[in-house]
């Protein structure tokens, strides 16, 4: 078709040149994408994507429900700079009284690999759903770490765990199934 330059009309040659440039650009784009996937090994193209994915997981994975003060009570209407700072509203049951950890503080004490290791082996007292954390993929766990570290540092203290034989000194939710009164 392009056998002789003199045969091709001007617009036709222009179109062919544009098509060739387009194909070259696609090829280069593909190489770049593969290189990026390779670099972070997550299957997500950029660090910003994985932070956004971590934010999504924290939101729909229920972490805020307990680890963000007031989140459940205010139907999620809590400013993001208060997310995951832990809470002093205890959960009281046969295990004693537990307090949701300040994850903004905790995750800053460990790098991504340590966090993956912790999440893979975690077992806590109730009502923390530690088994859900264990079930997450490594990419999801890394995304959560990246998201939490993208929030400003926060070291709001959380009350210590109280064993069953001692009454809690803070407000707490009694987390014990009740039989219906007949
Ligand atoms: C139903 C409430 C609840 C939900 C939902 C919840 N947590 Fe927890 N979490 C807790 C409580 C309470 C503790 C403290 C447990 C203890 O003292 O043994 C805790 C502890 C933890 C710990 C252990 C901290 C340490 O010191 O080792 C991690 C990590 C954690 N939560 C992460 C998460 C993440 C990530 C999510 C979301 C996927 C989540 N939690 C969802 C209540 C919850």
TrEMBL record:
Residue stretches spanning the membrane: 20-37
Keyword Oxidoreductase: no
InterPro entries reported in the protein's UniProt record: Cyt_c-like_dom (IPR009056), Cyt_c-like_dom_sf (IPR036909)
Disordered, as annotated region: 163-182
Keyword check for RNA-binding: no
Domain Cytochrome c intervals: 49-152
Molecular function per GO: electron transfer activity; heme binding; metal ion binding
Gene3D superfamilies with a match to the protein in the record: Cytochrome c-like domain
Keywords carried by this UniProt record: Heme, Iron, Membrane, Metal-binding, Transmembrane, Transmembrane helix
Identification of the protein by name: Cytochrome c domain-containing protein
Organism: Mesorhizobium mediterraneum
